[in-house]
Amino acid sequence: MTGRPIRLLHVDDDVDFAEMVAVFLQREREEFSLETAHDVETGLDRLSREPFDCVISDYEMPDETGLDLLRAVRESSPDLPFVLFTGRGSEEIAAEAISAGVSDYLQKGGGTDRYTVLANRVENLVAGYRTERDLQQRVDAIETAREGIGLIDARGTVTYANRAFADTFGYDPNEVAGSTVDALFVDEVEAAIRSATTDGEWTGEVLMARRDGSELLADVALSSTAGDELVCTVRDISAEERREHDLFVKTRAMDAAPIGITITDPSLPDNPMVYANEQFERLTGYVEAAVLGENHRILQGPDTDPEAVATLRDAVDDEEPVTVELRNYRKDGSSFWSRVSIAPIHDTDGQVTNFVGFQQDVTELVEARREREAVLDRVSDAFFALDHEWRFTYLNEQAERLLDRPRDDLVGRSVWDEFPEAADSTFADEYRRAMQTQETVAFEEYFPPLATWFEARAYPSESGLSVYFRDVSGRKASERALEQRARQFETFGDILSHDLTSPLATLRGRLELARATGDDEHFDEAEDAFERVSTLVDELATVMREGRVVNTLTAVDVGPVARELWGALDTGETTLTVGEVGEVRADERALTRLLQNLFRNSIEHGPATTVVVGPLDEGEGFFVADDGPGIPAADRDRVFEPGYSTKEGGTGFGMISAQQIALAHDWDLSVSASADGGARFEVRGVERAGSER
């Protein structure tokens, strides 16, 4: 042996015997390195984790035998030397061991010369094992070599060819064996063969023929062996020239490209640049020699966005392509905006060998976009842009405010994911119609999640959709108020004619009777009819006045206003209780008229014994409630309609007046039942004095 260490694994359940074997074997051979295991499971575990040159095993062991170990070893290592060294010997065991693939069989016992025999047999087995293994490795190396390698015998016949040799000539490896040099070589090669046989080697360029008849120029080397054969190596020069030409064309194409191109090598420390084209030099001011071996950080400066850099770094770590825009710096210190794209380059095994990077100067585009965005931020309308995947690409400040979302949280995200309530609404229908027809759409729609009416205009383009929108909730509220007022006055003429006709006719008839009879009783009835006409005219005038917007809003304390008004009314036995409503923003005169109509409703339609003014438990506002007969539930929707009244001879215009005052303040006036069963009027949406809306 050459002195190379020989690693042995000895498996024996007898600890003392195993130690003795180790001592004797290491005395016999210094190169022996022996480790022991005392059961089959431990032995297999050691073999799975460490390389060994030979296994020595006893036969009888707990649970499993040496033959069980042998069979397990042969499944993973068919050629590993295995010696069955056992104290129990029989022809049956020997036969079974040979059948299982044992390398040698030796019985324990006798003198110490047994260990000499064991050492010799192990040494011989390992030597043969290593020789076969080394030979196989050489064969494997030849088989996988990129150059064509073949053997030619003395008669000029190919006796062996590796895969590359066969591929060069268009054959399968098994088919090329048996071919003659006359079939492979176009040029005469007899002189070359004689020279190789005589001098030991010959090299040169030879014109050769493929199986399909095409020719190739090859670099050929012939070397003689100890026998009569020649080793023939072949390299297709024409293929190499084609590869070199293709590489030249690709390199020139990259150098002529209108964008900067770089290639980095991640196998080197810090993933440095190993190539930079000419446009990269024109773009950055760095010549290729100055950046080779440098990381792209050489282009970064104080205003380079760290988030964009982190995105690039993460893409490299994940071996994925990515594109970002970031501010880079030239060699002279001037900055420019660059659209940077990187992509991994894979070899035939799918492993990443390099990264290619592209740099494009987009300074003008970025500055134009920023100027456009600045203009959009200054326009009064809110604006956002969507791409064809319905993702936000831009929002101006007004859009951030109306949507109540920062643009950084929305850009790059789907509008339907961020606002799912809009996915099945008029907004989605109209936006999709605009995309499909490529025609502008305009519409108004209420969006419940934001409690806002929007007026929207959507303009389709090749890049997606541009949407301008504004909050028209105020206008819609005014329109609703105007519509309600219009509805209230639609029948004004009929009500006026109807309600005035009756008392006027009574007045005229009583006066005629008084003139004819001289009875004063008719004057009393005429006076009552006159009072009815006067009351009706006053209430109609009030309704007409309250159809206009109220005057200046000031801080008004509801409690004192209610008490002062109550003192000026003929309230009879009815009492007033006022809670802590506090100050609200209102037109004091209009608020007084509103309370007057609500108080008169309680006094005249009851009569009620108690009227209460107090704050609402929920929301901003106040209520006026009484303990009178109340308003039937079926009639509450009609309370504010012209002509409705539960009072005999009533006109119904008192409630219309109260409603008009509430609408003029943007308040909501509604009616329900009080806790005592009477009427309860609630005024909501009232702005507290000093609050901001």
Portion of residues in beta strands equals 15-25%
Strand order of the largest sheet: 2-1-3-4-5
Extract low-pLDDT stretches: 491-499
Task: Give the overall pLDDT as a whole number.
Answer: 82
Assembly status: single chain
Which CATH architecture of the largest domain?
2-Layer Sandwich
Keywords:
24 helices; Beta-Lactamase; 24% strand; 27 strands; Rossmann fold; 43% helix; elongated; 693 residues; 5-stranded parallel sheet; 5 domains; alpha+beta; 5-stranded antiparallel sheet
How would you characterize this protein structure?
With 693 residues, this protein is an alpha+beta fold. The chain has 5 domains: 136 residues, 3-Layer(aba) Sandwich (Rossmann fold); 96 residues, 2-Layer Sandwich (Beta-Lactamase); 105 residues, Beta-Lactamase (2-Layer Sandwich), CATH 3.30.450; 106 residues, PAS domain (Beta-Lactamase); 143 residues, Heat Shock Protein 90. The chain contains 24 helices and 27 strands. A 5-stranded parallel β-sheet has the order 2-1-3-4-5, sandwiched between helices. Strand 6 and strand 7 form a beta hairpin. The longest helix is centred in the N-terminal third of the chain and has 32 residues. The chain is elongated and about 165 Å long. The two termini are 98 Å apart. The relative contact order is 0.04.
